[in-house]
């Protein structure tokens, strides 16, 4: 069936909500038949095929009190594959049929399941029902229907989870949900799901962006000097560092982020073109950088973990539209 993939081309729209009945496999995979038990297509199943590695998947299930809610989140790691799987449909037709179905099934592996310290329950959602509906309406007006919203306004009086398996969670709704308590939903602020550490992220505060970049470059300079570089020269453009090790000139592209466990960074076309023309080029990423604003107004950056890709050559398959979002392969270091 034709899917209104309204999120395409916007790397910030990278969130999904899995609505689960069975805890088996929670946070381990998304798994949905390629067709409903009667052979008809189902948008909530087909959305599984639109999830990409690095996307964040929230999980709706029963909490410890028995009330349904968002209990945690995972990261899609891929690759998406088709397997043969047996499942029991839980809708009225599936229960009436009474026997499991067996057939081709989309399977998206997940990793790093993180339970929320305090699940966002259905009751809590309904306390902000008007706000939730406003966000969903704005998405529908901007992008057209269907938007595959995670919640429905049941009877015009309460929010309930959508009747489906996988739904699309707009970024604006993620922002709202994790501000329900006036905080971050039990997660550390710098890794709140609205940024979620999966992308380098866009920082409108120029001072903050410069502080992150400068700190990451300083970490890279120290790293290469400590690892035998004869020369280290800071350039900035078209690449950040020129490094000479044992007579070999190596170029280095440096990225810094406050996110933890990031799955992608933003690249310019020039950065991509340069890496493809000049080898060896390294991609040096510092993630989890801590920042604070000093009394004099300066932004101070410190710490962070290093991730390094030597002889980096960005592949077309890892690049996404809008600022060329690049999906990071497994690192050599970190």
Give an overview of the whole structure.
The chain is an alpha+beta fold and 334 residues long. The strands form five sheets. Strands 1, 2, 3, 4, 5, 6 and 9 form a seven-stranded mixed beta sheet that branches. It has a five-stranded mixed beta sheet with strand order 10-11-12-14-17, with helices on one face. Helix 4 packs antiparallel against helix 5. Helices cover 20% and strands 33% of the residues. The chain is built from seven helices and 19 strands. About 7% of the residues have low confidence. The chain folds into two domains: 175 residues, ph1033 like fold; 122 residues, Trna Endonuclease, Chain: A, domain 1 (3-Layer(aba) Sandwich).
